[in-house]
Amino acid sequence: MPEIRVRIAPSPTGDPHVGTAYMALLNYIYARQRAGRFILRIEDTDRTRFVPTSEQMIFDSLRWLGLQWDEGPDVGGPFGPYRQSERTEIYRKHAELLLASGHAYRSFETAEELDAMRKSQLAAKMQPRYNGAHRELSPEQIAAYEAEGRPSVVRLKVPAEGETSFRDELRGAVTFTHNNVDDQVLLKSDGFPTYHLANVVDDHLMQITDVIRAEEWISSTPKHVLLYRAFGWDAPRFWHMPLLRNLDKSKISKRKNPVSVIYYRESGYLPAALLNFLGLMGGGMPAGGSAEGGDTRAKNVEAEIFSLAQMEEKFDFSKISLGGPVFDLTKLKWLNGEYIRRLTPAEFLAALRETIFSDDYLGRIAPLVQTRVETLAGFGDMTDFFFRDDVMPTQEVFVPKKKTIEETIAFAAEQLAVLEATDFTTEALEPALKKLGEEKQWSVKDNFMLLRAIITGSTASPPLIESLIVFGKARTLDRMRRFIETQKKLAAQKR
RNA sequence: GGCGAUAUGGUGUAACUGGUUAACACGUCGCCCUCUCAAGGCGAAGAGUUCGGGUUCGAGCCCCGAUAUCGCUACCA
Fold it and tell me: Which of A21, A119, A423, A478 is 20 to 30 Å from the Cα of A329, by its Cα?
């Protein structure tokens, strides 16, 4: 039996996602249960969505949760580099291999041409697929295109006939007919691989035995299986885990739920509680039924509460339930409360001092109010919003005099978009917000006051931009989103 | 639209894998405790297992069909 090796492969495109934490937990447990290795690989092949600070945040978040990897970009390992942007030469060579063996081909269409093709197919009610125009280009035609200096991509040559099946360890055989599998781009015109190529090549080279990933990958798995075959490699086992959902059952999204692990850390969730909650998602742990040997509530509650070590001991992958579990913040909060109550007073104090009352946090807040308070206790009056789970201003507070409620909510959404796209620094934030105000004809005063009301719940606060920076991007964005969603709902109810 | 996956109270899960009135937790409601609010204790409502057929003495568990939901359908992952 070869050593079990699993991996998570997050993309550094933003804040670390709870879905990534969920997959990390599952992979971690799987590895620990089998004396295997848990690998972290950074999939940074999409240059357009790359966020430089993201990678470090992924490291920090996973470590905060206690899910340490055995191999990865920052800890090394025998199969590095573990950052895909540092492996482009490997992918290029493998693409050449496929080209040479006839399993792939060069395709010279531009993005615009492909886009036009897709649109006309859609208009004709056809399936939007690559039409295979360059599947059988002659060497002369290829040379001609190259002479033109036309960029190309490498595509997978999916057999026209037949079907591809694979075994999903949780669901059994899954089959796709080839006419439903597109000639996937493997190597982009910028020389970077797509997920599909990089993923298969790396999983093979890194000797991954079990691919435990989210369900959204099921429909691209046939492409991966075809790639393994084209290379003459054995495919790993595939485990597709259910997708975390919003309360309305749609795939979990930031609009409807806080999804940044940073948010949970900065809002004062305990890592053990978040982990425990994630472990509850999708079954796997023997919770749910009544506890053995007793039926008091206290006893039954115990079954819902378990540590990472207990998960390693008891988590059963064959028991995973396949329905997409709703990430229910209400239950997470209850669970977190359970964990807080179990702390000794000294531990509770320590937890406070390490998080929302850390010297670092207080030290950044204090200068914002020093000139504004007359007593030390005034600090509390001035800064309460930094320490609160949520605030919600009333309409009288947040709607400017000459604006309607609808206009105000719409503008808040614009502010949110700007905040999302902007670095949280004074130099970046202030001009970005002012620019938005000018474009939308909102005075600086109304503009900033609205934001102030949303974040602080009040019309009086320490300086706004500086406060936002200290409060943090993750919590700021979430507070904005919660505000917008809540106000939209209220407005809809009134109608 | 096409393809795939999934389906147990509002939510997360249980149900010895065909065998008594479908269980536990969260949430909700009520009562107790209490200066308040939590916590805690006690209790209640809430699903007949998406729907329709079948197989069987017996089905949430098996079969067939339908429906709904979710995912994929990018030179994103």
Answer: A423
